[in-house]
Specification:
Blueprint: H1 7-17, H2 35-50, E1 54-57, E2 63-67, E3 77-81, H3 95-111, E4 119-123, H4 137-143, H5 150-153, H6 162-168, H7 176-179, E5 188-194, H8 199-203, E6 207-213, E7 215-224, E8 228-229, H9 241-258, E9 264-267, E10 271-274, E11 280-281, E12 284-293, H10 296-317, E13 320-328, E14 332-333, H11 336-349, E15 353-358, H12 363-367, E16 372-378, H13 394-412
Parallel strand pairs: 3-4, 3-5, 5-16, 6-15
Antiparallel strand pairs: 1-2, 2-4, 6-14, 6-16, 7-12, 7-13, 8-11, 9-12, 10-12
Length: 415
Amino acid sequence: MDQSADVKSIEKWIEELDQFNQTPGNGTTRPVYSKEDMEARGYIRDLMLSAGLTVNEDNMGNLFGSLPGTDQSLAPVWTGSHIDSVPNGGKYDGAAGVFAGIEALRMIRESGLPHKRNISVNVYSGEEMSRFGVCCIGSRALTGRLKPNDLKSHKEPAGKSLYQVLKDAGYRPDAFESEFPHKAPVYASLELHIEQNDVLEKAGCSVGVVTGICAPTNLIVDVYGVQSHAGGTGMTARRDAFMAAAEISLLLERLALESDSVYITGTVGEMSLEPNAANVIPGHVTFSIDIRSVALEDKDDLLEKLFAGMQEITERRKVCVEHTMMNHDKPVICDEHIAEIIRKSAADLGIPAMDIVSGPYHDSLILGDITKVGMIFVPSKDGLSHNKAEWTDTGDIAKGTDVLAKALFQLANEA
């Protein structure tokens, strides 16, 4: 392929997609299956059609734009990402990979060069866990990790189930069992994404070759103490649910810092207190725990120590602690053959590249259940993401797209 990715088109698409946003002027908020998300899907569908792709959508809202190959008996190659966002997040997270995929397929189609395998650019539903407390809804359905009963058990904070939200959005959740998991084989999946860290920026590299993707373990923790008067209850008589929660949070941080894992993180990102009044000792606290590592055994080791520490805190502070594990996902090591194709594609194009570990999870983590996966990272300014200040130079996205197109074309011609 002689042509390069069109920087102006990528920039235009990212800006236009951001019109489907619940918080204009204050970051990007596009929850999965919301009005804005559904309108954004329509925009992407039209873009896929204008790029000459065949478009299909399943009953989880996963969108597929396919460029046919010359041998329909061969399993396809997939690329793509997501378009939902966290509250007040950035406009590049996920979207960059979708538009890079569409542009890469346009480049391949317009080159006129034949390729054997179908290549599909996909939009996976609900990669962020913001709405239903579980990540990668669409890719979990495709791989079989999401079960029929999960549709009714996963609920948004307002109480509406995933099943009902899907129905309200015009999908057919009752067809879930017959449609999922994905039955047809997939030869390979290659996703482009913004880095969400500052490693590439500091190294002056436009492309990161992802070698492994950290997987999340998510828990909801409830601490039950005794609600009482802030002035009337002496310090030694308190059974303070918040202070116990704070101590557990600090324990999580210490365990992550002390771990000898190649990459591990521990985060408390959401917390609610009851009754949440200035002069009342909290009687009940609910909070989230997010643990990620590139090695499952390192997460298991941290969890064992965390639970032991929680038990000690429970007994000492005379509170009750309960936890619910939402998911405990296994990290994935990216396919070395795909990684080598990315490295060589970047080298052939004269684009600086380096190997990198992905701390954040992506749909590729889940797709590793059904196919070999690879990822291309492009730099994030100051490492910021899930933040309205998130920014990636579209010139870097275009360079990543050039590498993506070259790599996809090679994968699509492998026997």
